[in-house]
Amino acid sequence: xxxxxxxxxxxxxxxxxxxxxxxxxxxxxxxxxxxxxxxxxxxxxxxxxxxxxxxxxxxxxxxxxxxxxxxxxxxxxxxxxxxxxxxxxxxxxxxxxxxxxxxxxxxxxxxxxxxxxxxxxxxxxxxxxxxxxxxxxxxxxxxxxxxxxxxxxxxxxxxxxxxxxxxxxxxxxxxxxxxxxxxxxxxxxxxxxxxxxxxxxxxxxxxxxxxxxxxxxxxxxxxxxxxxxxxxxxxxxxxxxxxxxxxxxxxxxxxxxxxxxxxxxxxxxxxxxxxxxxxxxxxxxxxxxxxxxxxxxxxxxxxxxxxxxxxxxxxxxxxxxxxxxxxxxxxxxxxxxxxxxxxxxxxxxxxxxxxxxxxxxxxxxxxxxxxxxxxxxxxxxxxxxxxxxxxxxxxxxxxxx
Length: 401
Known about the structure:
By secondary structure, the protein is an alpha/beta fold. The chain has two domains: 8-204 and 329-397, 3-Layer(aba) Sandwich (Rossmann fold), CATH 3.40.50; 235-318, formyl-coa transferase, domain 3. The protein has helices at residues 17-27, 56-62, 75-87, 99-102, 107-113, 138-144, 165-188, 198-203, 209-215, 251-260, 275-280, 282-293, 299-308, 319-324, 326-330, 372-379, 384-392, and strands spanning 8-12, 31-37, 50-51, 54-55, 65-70, 90-93, 118-123, 193-197, 235-240, 243-248, 313-315, 334-339, 343-348, 396-397. Strand 12 (334-339) and strand 13 form a beta hairpin. Helix 1 packs across helix 7 (165-188).
């Protein structure tokens, strides 16, 4: 049995942050009713590589969901949404500021319709905050949270992380919070509202910045460190004969590094004995290690040698390297799927491994409005006559993609 089997989710999301929640819940067996706004549905259907009006981006985030297409300009669509709210356990939304309120779908409205429902709202700055009126995307959350400030070279500009870390990170936070809210409901019978901010999710990643600043009375100012940690060495990215390698050395591993590079004398050298000493002479250590690496024919030989000496290392791989590495395939993180429109494509696999949770290989992303009839008929128990009236009045939206 799948862990979330029987859990019904109303998915009022688009793009990435919100769809991440439904994607994970679908993998665990939840039934997802994805509401797509007419006339075109989720805008991610057009991003960035498409075929017949369908995109790999949309497919990756929406496998296993059932699509109902609605023209939200029509007042009857709100009635359908209210009926769905009565039937579901969870609502997820990531609309812009004010949209849910205009459609009578704010938490204050939802509570009256279904007091047991768990509702997760994902936004850039939070629904209840002094900046709740601001719209924002992933890079805005990276910038405002201080994350972007920490990324890049010391003397260079702040750089964004080149993947949707704030979108996916806030989606994973919401996914986790929903699980606990459902557990709480099982004990109390009460639903609750989860106000998830992309900025908060990113701000939570600061491991040293805040306490470092406060414990030094402001003398320590968090800043970009570039390819190497400024206080610990060797701890950073090193150039090898065939690409880059990360070497991560704390005090217990320093002896191992010295032996591995054929310089056991460095361990007791007073210039490098303590972490602060090595941090102060970091450039010297980088030169020593990269000169040693240059004597090898390739990075793989270096990595194997360092592994033998129990030095924490990793190759710096690009996504194509990762796709072809046996680790990711054996862990199930490379998923080859066969989409009925786009054919075979590769997506990341499900990252959570449970001892008693079967993998769902059969999941397929829906076409726009593919499940209009099924949801209205089987979930809401609408009559055929009523469904035909909704079709005729243009409330329902569907499409080939």
